[in-house]
Write a structure and sequence with these properties.
Blueprint (H helix, E strand, L loop, with lengths): L2 H4 L16 H7 L2 H8 L18 E5 L5 E4 L3 E2 L7 E2 L8 E6 L6 E6 L5 E6 L9 E4 L4 E5 L2 H4 L1
Antiparallel strand pairs: 1-2, 1-9, 3-4, 4-8, 5-6, 6-7, 7-8
This protein binds fe (iii) ion.
Fe (iii) ion binds next to loops.
Amino acid sequence: MTEQSRQPTDPTTPDEQPLPRTEAEWRERLTSEQFEVLRNKGTERAFTGEYAFSKEDGVYRCAGCGAELFSSETKYESGTGWPSFWQPIDSDAVELHEDKSLFMRRTEVTCARCGGHLGHVFNDGPRPTGERYCMNSVSLQLDPADEERTS
Ligand code: FE
């Protein structure tokens, strides 16, 4: 890497910072609630999360690493008490895994960049995809759209 190519990097942009390498480093970066969900695959209580009912325009980033995960344009009211989307911002932004825990058969959704647990995806969503990405608010961080772009 040349000196020149390093300069534009904004150290405050989380998706350009190196990822923690150990769970101890993750504990330092995350709140205890974020750590429980992102690293321990916990689930926040329904209707308690910051984004359960949010309608602001913007991009929902990973609370662990800052990667862009969902657009507000695909968020919808699912009635579940968790922020729900019918599509990720990019199919490569998330990874899907078979999850047989808790005597259920579900599909876990993780952040493709940092591996953090986000929630699950179900096939009872609205059109056009029919998918319901049921996310934990605590795994997300809303990056609000610029005023001038939305007005
Ligand atoms: Fe991430």
